[in-house]
Design brief:
The chain is an alpha/beta fold and 227 residues long. Helices cover 41% and strands 22% of the residues. A 5-stranded parallel β-sheet has the order 2-1-3-4-5, with helices on both faces. α2 packs parallel to α3 and α6 packs across α8. The model has no long low-confidence stretch (mean pLDDT 88).
Length: 227
C-alpha cells in the first residue's frame, strides 16, 4: 500500500520508512506539515503516519484540514503526548488511531495492518476469497490450502486488487499504490507484476482481466461465489 510518513525527526522517519518498505509498501517521507498538506491535496495515499510537532503546519492542523476536505484516509498519530485529554482531542479531530513515542516497531506494523485492513473493508487479518486465503499478518497466500510463494511486492499488488474488487484500476492508479516517489518503475513494470501474480494464482478463484488501453479489473469467479 502507499503510505505517507509525516515526521520531522529525520532519523525516526527514515527508520519507519525502511521498516515499512521492507514489507513491500510504497513509502514516502515528508518532514514539513505545510508540504505534506500540499501533497495530500493532489496525491491520494492509503495511510498517513502523522507526527504532531511539525514545522510549517502542526500535525493537528494538517489533520483538521484533511478532514475538512472530506478526505477519509486513515491517520495514525505518532505522539509523545500521553495525557488522556490529548488523545480524546486527536480522536475527535478525526484521527483513526494513535501510538505514543517511544513505540515498538512490531506494534506500529500491527496498527498499520489494522487500519489498512479496515479501509479495505475486512475485519480480520486472515480473509478468504473463493479458494484463496490471505494472511496479512504473516504475508502468506494459500490456494486450495497450499502455500504459494509470493514476493512482498506481489502480495501488495494482490491486496490492491482485493481492496478494489470489480473496479477498473488504471496502470497509473496501481503504480501510485505500489511504488513511492523515489522509485521509477519501467513502462512495463505493472504488466510484469500482474503477469507474475496471475501465474502464481492460476489455480485460484481470483480473475484479473486486462482491459486494453484502460487497465485491470479483478473479480472472484462466479463458481467461487456460488459455492
Amino acid at each position: 500500500m502507499r503510505i505517507l510518513v509525516v515526521e520531522d525527526t529525520q532519523v525516526l522517519g527514515q527508520a519507519i520508512c525502511e521498516r515499512l518498505t521492507s514489507l513491500g509498501h510504497g513509502v514516502d517521507l515528508i518532514c514539513d506539515g505545510k508540504q505534506a498538506d500540499h501533497m495530500l491535496k493532489y496525491q491520494a495515499v492509503d495511510l498517513i503516519l502523522l507526527d504532531l510537532n511539525l514545522p510549517g503546519l502542526s500535525g493537528l492542523q494538517l489533520l483538521q484540514k484533511l478532514r475538512q476536505r472530506d478526505d477519509d484516509t486513515p491517520v495514525l498519530i505518532l505522539t509523545a503526548r500521553d495525557q488522556i485529554e490529548d488523545r480524546i482531542r486527536l480522536l475527535d479531530a478525526g484521527a483513526d488511531d494513535y501510538l505514543t513515542k517511544p513505540f515498538d516497531f512490531g506494534e506500529l506494523e500491527a496498527r498499520c495492518r489494522a487500519l489498512l485492513r479496515r479501509k479495505q473493508g475486512y475485519a480480520a487479518n486472515v480473509t478468504e476469497h473463493g479458494n484463496i486465503r490471505v494472511n496479512r499478518d504473516s504475508r502468506q497466500v494459500f490456494v486450495n490450502d497450499e502455500l504459494t510463494a509470493i514476493t512482498n511486492r506481489e502480495f501488495r499488488l494482490l491486496e490492491i486488487f482485493l481492496g478494489h474488487l470489480g473496479r477498473v484500476l488504471s496502470k497509473d492508479e496501481i503504480t501510485d499504490h505500489l511504488f513511492n516517489f523515489d522509485e521509477t518503475p519501467g513502462p512495463n513494470a505493472i504488466e510484469l507484476y500482474v503477469g507474475r501474480l496471475r501465474k502464481k494464482l492460476a489455480m485460484g478463484d481470483l480473475r484479473i482481466s486486462t482491459l486494453r488501453g484502460i487497465g485491470y479489473v479483478a473479480e472472484i469467479t462466479q463458481s467461487a461465489k456460488s459455492e
